[in-house]
Amino acid sequence: MNIVLWIIAGILVCGGLVMGIGFWMFKKEINEENPEYIVQFIKENIASENVSLAIHYNNEKWIDVNTNKQFPLGSTVKIIIAIEYAQQAADGRINPQQQVSLKELETFYIPKTDGGAHEAWISALNQSKNIDSVPLSEVANGMIAYSSNANTEYLMHVLGLQNINEVLKSLDLVDHELLYPSTSATYIPTQLMNEKNITKEETLKAMKNMDMAEYRDRALNIHNNWLKNPLTDEEKKQSLKILNMDIQKVWSDRLVKATTADYISILEKLNSKKYFHEDVHKYLDPVLEQLMQNPKNREWLTHAGQKGGSTAFVLTLAFYAKDKDGNQTEIAFFANNLNMIEQAKLSKNLNGFQLKFLKEEKFRMQLKKELSEI
């Protein structure tokens, strides 16, 4: 759900009219690294409830900002699917080594709706050799490491959406909405226009007025129909033309929602290594903890995992880690209704913010003091 990357690129191209020093200053602002920007953004948006931050440190509630407000999750919701994948693999219900045709995954691939994630995953696969199929474990890897939406919907099909949603109950998540096929939902505007023979403006109105039960049902029906009758390349191309920013906003607002309180509870379970059986972690950790593939991270971390998500309006992150001194950290950050500059600056600085919290006691104490005083 990284559609934002393509949108930003398009805006920058159109922004050619913003010439000279103005454009240079814009680029400088969004490229400047400043972890303190995260703190500034929270302070400025806490009252509007467009941001939520939950941090637990060594089992202590460190930061608690709007943690019971629901936010669209974007791709962060893929953590739930990864958990069900690992549970089914551990139980022997699926075979992680089962080969999956890349052509089969294309059924759920809509170009330019995932920030190039699926293409980047395919490109990485083909660096070693030209392949046409991968193990199911690699499909799960691509869902998390590259955030491929096509892989996500394929796993929904293989694992079963009902089974995936049972994870929410088993984890006792209080405010987590049910998962549904959100990539398939991008086709709902096209479906409406074809069904009702209406304009794009009328489609936008119909989308806004549609209740969530119908919206989910339509997305699921589209998902199931694509399994039998995949869209042609031309049909995919035509559907993209309808996804203007107003319609994307409706799509973004209707993504699966949850709270940072929900995700902190998930992160604590993952971080403890005690909640899930070790057989589950055997399959889950290689998918979620790809940060540990970096030798530099292995120098000071025992384990660490994360998943983020974004649209043109949303940025979310769920992160957990345990360092070699035994310190445990869980961070859930959700933001919504972002403008382009906020989206770019938050994306640029979240990693620096995480590192600063993990490594600097002074920053941890300062953050706790500043945000508890609001």
TrEMBL record:
What Gene3D superfamilies does the record tag this protein with?
Answer: DD-peptidase/beta-lactamase superfamily
Which residues span the membrane? 6-26
Molecular function terms, GO-annotated: hydrolase activity
Q: What is this protein called?
A: Serine hydrolase
Q: Which residues form the Beta-lactamase class A catalytic domain?
A: 58-177
The record's Pfam families line, in alphabetical order, gives: Beta-lactamase2
Q: Which UniProt keywords apply?
A: Hydrolase, Membrane, Transmembrane, Transmembrane helix
The organism's place on the tree of life at top rank: Bacteria
Recorded coiled-coil stretches: none
Matching InterPro entries, A to Z?
Answer: Beta-lactam/transpept-like, Beta-lactam_cat, Beta-lactam_class-A
